[in-house]
């Protein structure tokens, strides 16, 4: 998941909103209406509660076909392959990829990425020492590969505001179950956990909350949700991520993105990758910001944004990982959206440390289809008290406020680093950052 910076927009002092367009005017979506129906209807309890397995997925497909037959014929909404769902071994799974290429249903480059994804995921799960590792790998990868193939056949398209798909198939739980075995919870920590209860209380009161965060991996949304799912499920399931176009276009990433609430934008870093598309991207970003403003007007919204404009990357000389600097224009755009929403708003600095689980390429790449390096590792999440913005709006004050957010994120990050990489555990806590393991 790549959540990226908001574009800069012109502001008019007479306007209620931080850009010079009418929020009440009609506008078209970035893309056509999305595909929603994948399988036949199943009960809400089933789709939300069962532990996802390839066998369960295959049964959903069979139920669909039985329903069609009982109704007297007709075609399935989507031509669904059993290539992966019925695989009972690694050999069958990998041979299935080759069969789909030979049948012309899968591009060779995507197939190569799927096979690499499988092998890296397998190695990472076996690092955990879980006695059920082989079963976990086969089950989770069978479902993942099937969903990737399904999207190649019938590409899902994201609206400017995408609401997580929870039924008839629960993409959110798919992502949770896939990433969960990659996290070493014995070596994972949450900082200032009590503040997440404070945030939940503000949301209940109709307030909006924005989390200004560093960004490390495509798996960030799942990591956040997994570290909070036991104690703060409302936050885990309702967080809205400002997400870049790469996670909604890469077929290996899209099934995971479909399970998250997203505001879809184009990153500044990739705005001119194809110069003739730059104007389209700018207009799409404005539509997404209009959606964001409309959402915030209803109150009780929790938004995650990475003002750095992309994922953290290691220092090319030292190899050290640190939060990438925040962009003040992105921070200020988000502040203006909050202040103009009509609902009380709050801004908290959030730190993430999870790059070992799925680190990004060392450099920003233009092409879609990056390699996925995966490992089993501890992860960290920390939030600090909200930082109120100064009512003065000079450029200097905007920069000072952005630096205050960034400084807090960096301080929290360093505590998490000491706990996880420095092996200090809970002893890494400081006067301002109290670490805990709320899942215990």
UniProtKB/TrEMBL annotation:
Where the record places motif HXXXXD motif is 215-220
Provide the E.C. number(s) assigned to this enzyme: 2.3.1.15
Note whether Secreted occurs among the keywords. no
Which keywords fit this entry according to its UniProt record? Answer: Acyltransferase, Chloroplast, Lipid biosynthesis, Lipid metabolism, Phospholipid biosynthesis, Phospholipid metabolism, Plastid, Transferase, Transit peptide
Sorted alphabetically, which Pfam families does this protein's record hold? Acyltransferase, GPAT_N
Query: What SUPFAM superfamilies does this protein map onto?
Result: Glycerol-3-phosphate (1)-acyltransferase (SSF69593)
Q: Which residues cross the membrane?
A: none
Q: Which domain of life is it from?
A: Eukaryota
Phospholipid/glycerol acyltransferase domain mapped to chain residues: 209-355
Query: What InterPro entries does this protein map onto?
Result: G3P_O-acylTrfase_chlp (IPR016222), G3P_O-acylTrfase_N (IPR023083), GPAT_N_sf (IPR038114), Plipid/glycerol_acylTrfase (IPR002123)
* Pathway assigned in UniProt: Phospholipid metabolism; CDP-diacylglycerol biosynthesis; CDP-diacylglycerol from sn-glycerol 3-phosphate: step 1/3; Lipid metabolism
Question: Any one Gene Ontology biological process term?
Answer: CDP-diacylglycerol biosynthetic process
Any Gene Ontology CC annotation = chloroplast stroma
Q: Provide the protein's localization.
A: Plastid, Chloroplast stroma
Q: Which family does it belong to?
A: Belongs to the GPAT/DAPAT family.
**Protein name in UniProt:** Glycerol-3-phosphate acyltransferase, chloroplastic
Specify the species.
Gossypium hirsutum (Upland cotton)
């Amino acid at each position: 998941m790549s959540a990226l910076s908001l574009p800069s927009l012109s502001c008019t002092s007479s306007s209620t909103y931080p850009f010079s367009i009418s929020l009440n005017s009609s506008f078209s979506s970035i893309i056509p209406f999305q595909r929603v129906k994948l399988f036949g209807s199943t009960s809400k309890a089933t789709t939300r509660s069962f532990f996802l397995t390839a066998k369960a997925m295959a049964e959903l497909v069979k139920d669909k076909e039985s329903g069609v037959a009982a109704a007297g014929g007709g075609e399935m909404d989507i031509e669904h392959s059993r290539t992966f769902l019925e695989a009972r071994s690694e050999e069958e799974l990998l041979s299935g990829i080759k069969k789909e290429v030979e049948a012309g249903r899968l591009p060779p480059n995507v197939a190569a990425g799927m096979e690499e994804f499988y092998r890296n995921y397998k190695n990472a799960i076996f690092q955990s020492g879980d006695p059920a590792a082989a079963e976990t790998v086969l089950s989770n990868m069978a479902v993942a590969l099937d969903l990737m193939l399904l999207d190649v056949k019938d590409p899902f398209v994201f609206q400017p505001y995408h609401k997580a798909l929870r039924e008839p198939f629960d993409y959110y739980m798919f992502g949770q179950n896939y990433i969960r075995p990659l996290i070493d919870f014995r070596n994972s920590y949450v900082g200032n956990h009590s503040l997440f209860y404070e945030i939940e209380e503000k949301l209940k009161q109709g307030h909006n909350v924005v989390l200004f965060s560093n960004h490390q991996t495509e798996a960030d949304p799942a990591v956040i949700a997994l570290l909070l799912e036991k104690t703060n499920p409302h936050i885990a399931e309702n967080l809205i991520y400002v997400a870049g176009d790469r996670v909604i276009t890469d077929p290996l990433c899209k099934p995971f993105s479909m399970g998250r609430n997203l505001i879809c934008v184009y990153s500044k870093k990739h705005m001119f990758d194809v110069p003739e598309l730059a104007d389209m991207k700018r207009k799409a970003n404005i539509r997404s910001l209009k959606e964001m403003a409309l959402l915030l007007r209803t109150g009780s919204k929790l938004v995650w944004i990475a003002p750095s404009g992309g994922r953290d990357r290691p220092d090319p000389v030292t190899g050290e990982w640190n939060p990438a600097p925040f962009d003040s224009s992105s921070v200020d755009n988000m502040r203006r959206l909050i202040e103009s929403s009509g609902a009380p708003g709050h801004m908290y600095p959030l730190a993430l440390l999870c790059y070992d689980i799925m680190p990004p390429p060392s450099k920003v790449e233009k092409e879609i289809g990056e390699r996925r390096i995966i490992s089993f590792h501890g992860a960290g999440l920390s939030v600090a008290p909200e930082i109120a913005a100064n009512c003065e709006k000079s450029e200097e004050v905007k920069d000072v406020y952005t630096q205050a957010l960034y400084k807090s994120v960096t301080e929290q990050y360093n505590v998490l680093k000491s706990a996880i990489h420095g092996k200090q555990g809970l002893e890494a806590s400081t006067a301002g950052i109290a670490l805990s393991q709320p899942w215990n």
